[in-house]
Amino acid sequence: MVNYISKPAYKAVAHFGQITPTAFKGYFTSLIFWGTATVFGLATFTEAWPLFQKNVYSKIPVLGKHWQKEVDPQDLPI
Amino acid sequence: MLSRLSLRSGRSLGLATTVARSFSSSAHTLKSTYDSPDFTKYLNKSKGANPDKTRDYTYLMVGAYGLVSAAAAKSTVDAFLSTMSASNDVLAMAKVEIKLGSIPLGKNVVVKWQGKPVFIRHRTTDEIAEANDVDISTLRDPQKDSDRVIRPEWLIMMGICTHLGCVPIGEAGDFGGWFCPCHGSHYDISGRIRKGPAPLNLEVPHYEFVDEAESVMIG
Amino acid sequence: MSFYHTVFNTVFKRNSVFLTTIFAGAFVFQAVFDEGVNKWWEARNKGKLWKDVKLTIPGAGEEEDDE
């Protein structure tokens, strides 16, 4: 007696919405690249923001000294 | 790229019937059987012409334009937004520093800060004890004296009555503190409302002591 | 592979990399341009700037009491 398989055994693939691991793997590289582009885009537009200047941009190795403000202590208001 | 170029030039010689589109590397367009126009006669056929160089140059120009546009857009936004920030003359008026050494024990001083009066009182130990002695549950605006001062000997608060904004008189009233002559609000030695129409205690501005409490910076 | 082909494949082929290059370039450009213009302006106005004038004013370091 041959054991026939009456129907295919369905298995649910783990997913988050429509995104399955396979689909995510396909998009992963692209997402990394676009993420980097977004970061630089935001950096361009927050360049003059004192909060970002103080915490992020002034700590960039060579270019950072552009955002480091050195005021002669004599010129500071009391 | 080269294979596609040769395919295209092959077509112009009548060797191929279908031509893949150039300038796209996606598999879809490579497989496409769509008969696209033949642009061979428009190609740069001068000696030493490099299609890669031409293409790089085009993209470089587009990129450079994008770069300058991004910087210009950011500068424009920045210019508009910076008009909303406080100018330096306003910032210079935002703080005031007072030397405390010249204020004797048990005396009031009124200073002007941002156009408003600020009371500074050098309190005696008796007055501090009196301020702490009050049962705060009986107060209209319950607040401990320690919540109203940083150093108990220095009471610093806005000199504006919380009723209708008159300037109270110092060392007056039923509770040895301040008295507002406009509608008769009495404040105690901690500036808390005790009697009269005012709803709240006198406001305490943000301040900090500098140079070992030699002076105080209001603002 | 010619030089131009390499450039195309590394920078222009992916739109995301192209855009990253543009924005990174814009970010660096802003800082460099700003620095450059400031340098030029300060060189042009040398002697008239506060940092130059300050040294020639006697007693500039002393505090003035205006209260």
TrEMBL record, chain A:
Q: Does the keyword Membrane apply?
A: yes
Q: What's any one GO cellular component for it?
A: mitochondrion
Please, which domain of life does this record's source organism belong to?
Answer: Eukaryota
Going by the UniProt record, its keywords in alphabetical order are:
Membrane, Transmembrane, Transmembrane helix
Query: Could you mention a single GO BP entry for this protein?
Result: mitochondrial electron transport, ubiquinol to cytochrome c
InterPro entries, alphabetized: Cytochrome_b-c1_su10_fun (IPR019182)
Q: Where are the transmembrane segments?
A: 31-52
- What is the name attached to this protein's record? DEKNAAC104914
TrEMBL record, chain B:
Q: Where in the cell is it found?
A: Membrane; Mitochondrion inner membrane
**EC top class named in words:** translocase
Does the keyword ATP-binding belong to this entry? Answer: no
Question: Which Gene3D superfamilies does the protein's record reference?
Answer: Rieske [2Fe-2S] iron-sulphur domain, Ubiquinol cytochrome reductase, transmembrane domain
Taxonomy, superkingdom: Eukaryota
Look up keyword Hydrolase and say if it applies. Answer: no
InterPro entries, per the entry: bc1_Rieske_TM_sf (IPR037008), Rieske_2Fe-2S (IPR017941), Rieske_2Fe-2S_sf (IPR036922), Rieske_Fe-S_prot (IPR014349), Rieske_Fe-S_prot_C (IPR005805), Rieske_TM (IPR004192), Ubiquinol_cyt_c_Rdtase_Fe-S-su (IPR006317)
Q: Which UniProt keywords apply?
A: 2Fe-2S, Disulfide bond, Electron transport, Iron, Iron-sulfur, Membrane, Metal-binding, Mitochondrion, Respiratory chain, Transmembrane, Transmembrane helix, Transport
Which NCBIfam families would you find in this protein's record?
Rieske_proteo
Any remaining note in the record? The Rieske protein is a high potential 2Fe-2S protein.
Protein name in the entry: Cytochrome b-c1 complex subunit Rieske, mitochondrial
* Source organism: Brettanomyces naardenensis
From TrEMBL, chain C:
User: Membrane-spanning regions, if any?
Assistant: 12-33
Q: Matching Pfam families, A to Z? A: UCR_UQCRX_QCR9
Keyword Metal-binding annotated: no
How is it placed in the membrane, per its record? Single-pass membrane protein
* Localization per Swiss-Prot or TrEMBL: Mitochondrion inner membrane
Alphabetically, which GO biological process terms does the record hold?
A: mitochondrial electron transport, ubiquinol to cytochrome c
A GO cellular component annotation here is:
respiratory chain complex III
Q: Would you tell me the protein name for this molecule? A: Complex III subunit 9
Q: Which organism is it from?
A: Brettanomyces naardenensis
